[in-house]
Amino acid sequence: MEKRNILITGGAGFIGSHVVRLFVHKYPNYNIYNLDKLTYAGNLANLKDIETKPNYHFIKEDICNFESILNIFKTCNIDGVIHLAAESHVDRSIKDPFTFASTNVLGTLSLLQAAKNTWQNFEDKLFYHISTDEVYGALKMDNPTGGDEPGGGPYGGEFFTENTKYDPHSPYSASKASSDHFVRAFYDTYGLPTVISNCSNNYGPYQFPEKLIPLFINNIRHGKPLPVYGKGENVRDWLFVEDHARAIDIIFHKGKKGETYNIGGFNEWKNIDLIKQLIKTTDELLGNPLHHSDSLIQYVTDRQGHDLRYAIDSNKLKRELGWQPSLQFEQGLKITVQWYLDNQDWLDNVVSGQYLDYYRDMYGNR
Ligand code: NAD
Ligand code: TYD
Asked: Which end of the chain is more exposed for a tag (fewer CB within 10 A), N or C?
């Protein structure tokens, strides 16, 4: 099997940890360099099970630190990049947009420039940038009440395709859109071999409990309120994180340079329907009576600039590279809830911030 040196940025985060785990197991001949700054969202406990594997290497670094990044490209002889490191939470971006511009835009630029400066030729090299469907803005719904069955796109209206015009609304999506533009500019201007994928909302194990699904599971567990923004009518298209990691593997190895691939579950849920399903599943697994936690729902002030609907058309990826989601949502949700209930120590450590102290002692202050 071919030997490669792959730099995965943001590997201590939610999606990154699944990608690192998949690559470390599946490609023993690849050296996997997980480069992560370990912000509040980075937690090396996410990778405990693979940290001693001989092909896994951790580097604590900030992607914005260009000189260090350049040095890492040279000394580790990096020939492929899967770039996931980012500030990723919309609510934080509304409070502190500067950090998002810095990491998501300048950090991406620093990686692109390091790749361009280091790679003598572009043969067998790839810079793969992981992006989001949020760059496309918000979709309307032809049928806002939905069908009888939530999930599967009952709301009608268009889907995001690879040709949808960029129209980001939050500081988070604006920073991701800007980074996508830089990636395309490096392909067009310098011929840097790049590929981009834009994925819908992910869920699954190891997601930081500031995002809807793990936050609500934790709150149900503790009988705490579930803050539903606005009327809970916004629609998201949910994909199990391991299906995303599998798509990333396929695109990294088979994707066409210069192309964009949309990744999504064809699995649209109105927030309030999803929350009810989540309550039902969590109550069931906790052994509570049906509807036990319904009263925890609290409608709160809506998020500023809250995008109404995201829905991805991932037919190109299916048609050209043969990928499709493997899990039904109800099944994925059950696996996810069970994982958080089985891993309460992980959840408690993250919520209390204990993991920060632990890794700060080990790797120094961030
Ligand atoms: P996350 O917030 O869980 O993890 C981000 C990781 O990046 C953390 O480990 C953090 O320490 C690291 N990081 C942040 N700033 C850094 C810096 N300056 N230098 C080095 N490392 C840094 O994010 P996630 O949800 O796993 O998302 C990963 C990527 O996938 C992001 O680029 C995000 O935009 C994209 N994405 C996420 C979703 C989703 O639903 N979570 C959907 C589509 C696309
Ligand atoms: P989130 O998980 O933050 O992902 P994103 O904003 O990237 O889609 O939120 C998912 C949806 O859930 C979004 O429409 C906002 C909503 N939401 C709530 O209603 N309450 C909450 O406490 C959170 C975190 C999100």
From this structure: N
